[in-house]
Predict the structure.
Amino acid sequence: MGGEEFVLRPSLCPHHALVYRSRQHAGRDLPLRIAELGGMYRSELSGVLGGLTRVRAIQINDGHVFCRPEQAAGEVSAALDLIEAAHAQLGIEAARYRLSLRGEGAEFVDDAGMWDRAESVLREVLESRGRPFDEERGEGAFYGPKIDIQIADPAGRESTLSTVQVDYFQPERFDLECPGGGRPVMVHRSVVGGLERLAAHLIEVHGGAFPAWLAPVQAVVLPVSDAELPAAQELVPSCVAEGMRAELASPARGTLGARIRANRLVPFQLVVGPREAAGGGASVRLRDGSQAGAVPVAALAAQCRPRF
Ligand SMILES: [Zn+2]
């Protein structure tokens, strides 16, 4: 196109290596961390495509840390901290941690010393965190071993969601240099993997009842009858002004019971009866059917914010 060649990225690593190489670095620049929510593409045959879990165009949350060899273990551990914090916010439980090692065959870079060094960094970090893990041969990346954090669907099928990898190979391939000489190490890390697979998993594990900060609609305002409609219509913008995603479910959409059922996955259901309309508030019903009473909008909004 216009004399230039365009390609679909099969991974983000080479681009980040080129970003690193594009300028000179000072000693204090390291570790240099680059993160991107970027597109990558896989040439999957149509027969193996499935829902959101096996797709051709992936938006991946990916990052690469360029550091000195002695900084690698600390960066791996920091990536695991970030992964565990993200899982807690998303309500995800890891099925297991896997140390994925080199297998036999030409698809793995042939340099035993390099594999051993990377493996010992990952093993040391896992052991120091005291978290049990399994080891599997043949599951490593072509350039190095990795820590894979496995998730399972309700049928018990496993897939990798998050990963941290130590790579001595690509810095060599891309001729990267540390300030003052020597090669940097590339720590690849993906906190939540591809967003398509993440969305599929979240829908399954939460059954649509997402944590409040993640819910597409966080508050629905339900006037009991047309008489409370004006008060309810005023409540919606006050919720929005507090930063909530809020909607109105007016009596035109059916009985109060039917509207509550239709909005049962919304974290906060704000019922406005005659008493609430007079006071300018609402009686709050939660997803489990329990009543929280008259909670101020600001307090609900606070519960809708992520706690990063
Ligand atoms: Zn990478």
